[in-house]
# Entry
Amino acid sequence: MNTLNEFRCLFPAVSANEALARAALSAFLIPADPTAQELADLRTVISEAVTNAIVHGYRNCSGDVAVCLRMLPERVLYIRVSDKGCGIPDIEQAMTPLYTSAPEEDRAGLGFAIMQEFTDSLHVRSSPGNGTVLTMRRKLGRIHAEDD
Ligand SMILES: Nc1ncnc2c1ncn2[C@@H]1O[C@H](COP(=O)(O)OP(=O)(O)OP(=O)(O)O)[C@@H](O)[C@H]1O
Ligand SMILES: [Mg+2]
# Structure
């Protein structure tokens, strides 16, 4: 992977850090001059991923969430969000739109569907007890004269 720029951070799984992850994404992406729509989509994507790590991954324990952002050639943004929490027993079920393991918390079960809708690829690696790693890619659309 030919990485043009990279940002990595690790923070404790507390909900205040969802905003921190969004802010980091914005600061990383803005030099690439995304459209307002791309920025909004990708802020939503990272928010859903980090929230899942915090509320599901670390439901019964504490720990850190790791975020890695990369700018790849041809304006492809790579996002990795990982936790070392409880893991996902059935990934296919978890990714089914409207499935949630926490209906009592009024969760809609739409986080994965949103992440899929707003990215070009989404890969989930997870197993019970070993945490979860999400990797996503989204190509930015706007072409700049200097890129031609
Ligand atoms: N990092 C994670 N660790 C453990 N389980 C997870 C993780 N991320 C997702 N899950 C599981 O996958 C399910 C579906 O996630 P999804 O984000 O689609 O919905 P949700 O979080 O339940 O609801 P919403 O995102 O709409 O608030 C979760 O209910 C949870 O069981
Ligand atoms: Mg969710």
Q: What stands out?
A: Residues 5-142 form a domain with the Heat Shock Protein 90 fold (CATH 3.30.565.10). The CA atoms of residues 61 and 88 lie 15 Å apart. The longest helix spans residues 36-57.
